[in-house]
Amino acid sequence: MGAIRLEKVKKTFGTLDVIPGVDLDINDGEFVVFVGPSGCGKSTLLRLIAGLEDVTDGKILINGVDVANEAPAKRGLSMVFQSYALYPHMTVYNNIAFGLKMAGESKAVIDEKVQNAAKILNLTDYLERRPGALSGGQRQRVAIGRAIVRNPAAFLFDEPLSNLDAALRVNMRLEITGLHQELKTTMIYVTHDQVEAMTMADKIVVLQAGRVEQVGKPMDLYNNPANKFVAGFIGSPKMNFIGGDYAKKHDCHEIGIRPEHVAVSTESGDLPATVKIAEHLGAETYLHVNAGGFGPMTVRATGEVPLGEHDKIWLTPEQDRIHRFDANGIALGKL
Amino acid sequence: MSTRSSTLTGRIMSAPSIIALFLWMIVPLGMTIYFSFLRYNLLSPGMEEWVGTLNYEFFLTDPAFFASLANTLLLVGSVLVITVIGGVLLGLMLDQPIFGRGILRLLVIAPFFIMPTVNALVWKNLLMHPVSGMFAWIANSLGFQSIDWFSEAPLTAIIIMVSWQWLPFAVLILLTALQSLDRDQKEAAQMDGAGPVSIFFYITLPHLSRAITVVVLIETIFLLTVFAEIFVTTGGGPGLATTNIAFLVYTQALLQYDVGGASAGGIVAVVLANIVAIFLIRLIGKNLDR
Amino acid sequence: MENKQTPLGHIGFSIFAWIVGLLIFFPIFWMVLTSFKTELEAVSIPPSFISFDWTLENYAEVQARSDYFRFAMNSVILSVGSTLVGLLFAVPCAWAMAFNPTKRTKDALLWMLSTKMMPPVGVLVPIYLVFRDWGLLDTRFGLIMVLFLMNLPIMVWMLYTYFKEIPSDILEAARMDGATLPKEIIFVLLPMAVPGIASTMLLNIILAWNEAFWTLNLTTADAAPLTAFIASYSSPEGLFWSKLSAASTLAVAPILIIGWFSQKQLVRGLTFGAVK
């Protein structure tokens, strides 16, 4: 069981409000991703839940019990660190067993749990090695193994994939998702990478400057961003924002349109544009264009598109995919 | 990592060291300052009385003070010049690929680990003795008159001994700094057409400037209070020729039992050392922020 | 620069470097050599380099005449003792400063450093008087305290710079794993800090062994270490160079060996982390 509830959680460092006050509900078994640009307070929020930092004010309820003043170990949570934070002087076995030893478990119980975790994570052959002799992905798995054996109420992940190379990152992403499906334990996952957020989360919490901008399912955030910040942050390449007359036509201050929601034609369309750079990826093509009075835009066309520098094209945004924002960047809903 | 309990534990854990150091330095320093305003001689106990700044007036107008101040500055200055220039040259030398470089480096830094009393007596007797010393023999075999170092050039002799002791310190630190110099930088300079001399002045020396500053400051602090080398060789003489401030304070305190005068001298030494210390602490403090 | 050297230039430079190195090392070499000579050969002109009767007599006599062993024991007790006491104080302090820094940590560190800048003559008088009044003059306990306090700032600093290199993540992981503070320090921090602690200890042993202000001023006989023992040779009686050399060789040999082993780590301690 691991339902976590934050009530008016506040954190200040000196006079600096890092987290001005967050309310959040995390259901048992949910995979929640905190996402935001660096410095948005997502890691601090995670560390507050872990107990590695004191809350300045507010309550942290785990299964209904306020743990805001408990030591980290008493909260029944496990954490996987960005740097893995393995104990370099211990073998893989002892790394995984350390928490159980601290809890005073018997040797037999420890051995059973460690072997079991090692099997799940494909680490059985490496148990006698030291972390220094492992690859990045293996270290990551040891860190996860250390978290698993304690049967925590919830797992906390602090940007766990950011030290891995791109190919390994995709693999580990799938492994962690698989692990969640198998264990069905609550997981809170911090990342600055919106792709990780979109692909892994049951629920995404978008943070900026310590405030929650929006909470919701990945596709909700994609389709119905609450404001310009969320709209720009979720989705890649980034949403295009267009102000001026074209926005006025839609009765708003600014409109946003995702690159994948603009049709490209060489003959006709709403907006004339000139290609500046075309990035050919094979399955799709990113066109960085100059759209006359609207300034630079990015457009995504599927498949191979035979366009290059200086080519003149026409763009037509899909009308029902246009997001409208007021002067404060708040979404106005679709027309 | 800042939780209330950890901050508190931190305080408790660091308190013993801080309190111990406080008792060791600040309290005696306060006593020294207090004594420096007293007429206080160990030979006439119970006669202590407040004399204001009289001890300072005596100490600072004593010809012995000027002589020892001059000796202190001469000693510190000469040793600094010798060790820094020698340290840079030896550092550059040891940074080159040499046969048996590791062993050679051990030989060069060895003097630093020799205790000061051994250093002084070995130099005084085995090397600088006017009749049987190595230097006398070399001078005689080359047809020169041998020098009686400790009566003809006593301060020079002390300077040589102290320099020999501290040269390895400079080498060790400057060599470490040299080895941290990015090879790419040198190679980029070579690509830009810089010769060895320009590389030294435009790349190596600026890179070393920090380390040199550290060497100068730390050596100054230790050299201001050179004691054992003087104590076992010349005893400050002949006359006052090798008395530095530290030794002068020592003679006043433990040979003449003039606590008041020695305290005033001690405070003068503290002030001199602090002028240097302020710069060193600033430098290290800046380093701490990085 | 070096890769342009010709093989011949390389050899020439090596020879030059070795001559310079041997010249610097010569006083030590000469001291060791003299310790194996008879007193007569020691003062003979021209000096004899190899062609003399090697003898171990001086070493035997140093012990017989002046009870060398007792001074050596004092040196060991003082340097090791002050280092161990120092660790006891410095490890918790450095831990707190490295992992639980507060706004005042930096000031505290710099203040500690500043006490090291204080010339010992500035506090000689009160320390001497306090030692005299408390009966600490010429006691090992008194000197251990002095040497420990003298080197405490260096110990804290050195350990601090080593602890700073240990990622705090790892200690937090231990905390998440349920380790209490003592367990966190014993099972996680200390094993990782062993190299740093070892070099801190070595530097302190070297500094305490060679310390020659307080050991000369606060001891007379009972607690006197080798620095004072050697200093007693400054008032010679008869021929004594070989014996002085033998005694000196014995006094510096252990520290020279320790120093050679730890030379790389010493730089950090000696410069308070300003040069690494």
TrEMBL record, chain A:
Family matches, as InterPro entries: AAA+_ATPase (IPR003593), ABC_transporter-like_ATP-bd (IPR003439), ABC_transporter-like_CS (IPR017871), ABC_transpr_MalK-like (IPR015855), ABC_transpr_MalK/UgpC-like (IPR047641), Mo/tungstate-bd_C_term_dom (IPR008995), NA-bd_OB-fold (IPR012340), P-loop_NTPase (IPR027417)
Domain of life: Bacteria
Gene Ontology MF annotations: ABC-type maltose transporter activity; ATP binding; ATP hydrolysis activity
Gene Ontology cellular-component terms listed: ATP-binding cassette (ABC) transporter complex, substrate-binding subunit-containing; maltose transport complex
Domain ABC transporter: 4-234
Keywords: ATP-binding, Nucleotide-binding, Transport
NCBIfam families the record matches: PRK11650.1 (NF008653)
Family named by the database record: Belongs to the ABC transporter superfamily.
Name this polypeptide is given: Glycerol-3-phosphate ABC transporter ATPase
Organism: Thalassospira xianhensis MCCC 1A02616
From TrEMBL, chain B:
Protein's cellular compartments: Cell membrane
UniProt keyword list: Cell membrane, Membrane, Transmembrane, Transmembrane helix, Transport
GO CC annotation: plasma membrane
Gene3D superfamilies linked to this entry: MetI-like
The family this protein is said to belong to: Belongs to the binding-protein-dependent transport system permease family.
Transmembrane region(s): 12-37, 64-90, 102-123, 155-176, 211-232, 263-284
Keyword Transcription regulation: no
Main location: membrane
Name of the protein in its database record: Sugar ABC transporter permease
GO biological process: transmembrane transport
Annotated InterPro entries: ABC_transporter_permease (IPR051393), MetI-like (IPR000515), MetI-like_sf (IPR035906)
CDD domains named in the record: TM_PBP2 (cd06261)
PANTHER family membership: ABC TRANSPORTER PERMEASE PROTEIN
Bilayer topology annotation: Multi-pass membrane protein
Domain spans labelled ABC transmembrane type-1: 69-280
Domain of life: Bacteria
TrEMBL record, chain C:
SUPFAM superfamilies: MetI-like
Gene3D superfamilies linked to this entry: MetI-like
Membrane-spanning parts: 12-33, 76-97, 109-131, 143-163, 184-209, 240-261
Keywords: Cell membrane, Membrane, Transmembrane, Transmembrane helix, Transport
Membrane disposition: Multi-pass membrane protein
Subcellular location: Cell membrane
Gene Ontology cellular component terms for the protein in this record: plasma membrane
Domain ABC transmembrane type-1: 72-262
Family of the protein in this entry: Belongs to the binding-protein-dependent transport system permease family.
Protein name from the UniProt record: Mannitol ABC transporter permease
Organism (species): Thalassospira xianhensis MCCC 1A02616
